[in-house]
Amino acid sequence: MNCINFSKNILHKINSKESLYLVNSKVIESHIHPWKYNRPVDKNRVVAIAEYICNKDFVDGIIYCANIVEEYDNVLYCFDGLHRLNALKSIDKNYKIFLYILDGVTHEYVKEKFIALNQSAPVADIYMLNSNNHIDNIKAIVHNIITYLKIQFPNHISNSKNCKKPNFNYNILFNELCNYLLESGLVNINYQELLDKIMKINIVYKYNNELHIKLKLSSIVLNKCKKNNCYLFIKNFIEDIQL
């Protein structure tokens, strides 16, 4: 499958490499693969998007894919909108969706497009680097750490890019923690060691009344922290990690 198959569905040809199409979700969803530089899919976010689509009976936004010259011919890789695509796969109904295709481009071309699309949200440096054992180790460990935090503190998860204390956003935390490990040269970090240090920070914050006063935490914030035994996100805990 490539963009030629969608010639009858084309809405606009932006340039020789980029075109916008209107297609049926059930026709294309099984033919699109995740781009290798994508962040891991957040299952909770997929469920939320699926519920949103079903309630509105309409699919917002655009799914961005690329036919990449370094990869297999006639295969599309989704580099933006992967959560929306996974949500559509979980829904039986067929929807009309906007599909933006980059045809016959390189990974570098896709990276530039991806960064341009996500200028309002931080993109972890680690996802713009070529995969190797060290990079894959950091990505896996950080993903597993945040997955643990999501299970441990489900009431503190936020899907907002501007989440407030004492909550956290997966993508933002993933970016910041990955960048910290990269910049610190901690490419061989151990999962359990890092998790233990993070959870110790939670305990330190819990009993540091001077910090609570300094941060001017409201009674609402402190009550939520106390109820869930989660003080980790009253500030950026990454700056207090000592490895």
What's the layout of helices and strands?
Layout lengths: L9 E4 L4 E7 H4 L3 E3 L8 H14 L5 E7 L7 E5 L1 H8 L6 E10 L1 H11 L15 H20 L17 H14 L7 H17 L1 H6 L4 H10 L15
Parallel strand pairs: 3-5, 4-6
Antiparallel strand pairs: 1-2, 2-6, 4-5
Helix pairs in contact: 2-3, 5-6
Explain the overall architecture.
The protein is 43% helix and 15% strand. The protein is an alpha/beta fold. It has 2 domains: 1-119, Alpha-Beta Complex (Conserved hypothetical protein from pyrococcus furiosus pfu- 392566-001, ParB domain); 124-243, no CATH class. A 6-stranded mixed β-sheet has the order 1-2-6-4-5-3. The chain is elongated. The termini are far apart. The mean pLDDT is 86.
* Termini separation: 48 Å
Helical segment count: 9
Strands in their spatial order, largest beta sheet: 1-2-6-4-5-3
Shape descriptor reads elongated
The major pleated sheet works out as: 6 strands, mixed
Number of strands: 6
- What's the Cα radius of gyration? 21 Å
- Specify the helix fraction band: 40-55%
User: Beta-strand level of the residues, as a percent range?
Assistant: 5-15%
- Count of separate structural domains: 2
SSE sequence, one letter per element: EEHEHEEHEHHHHHH
Structural class by sheet pairing and helices: alpha/beta
Question: In terms of per-residue confidence, which ranges show pLDDT below 50 for 5 or more consecutive residues?
Answer: none
If you average the pLDDT, what whole number results?
A: 86
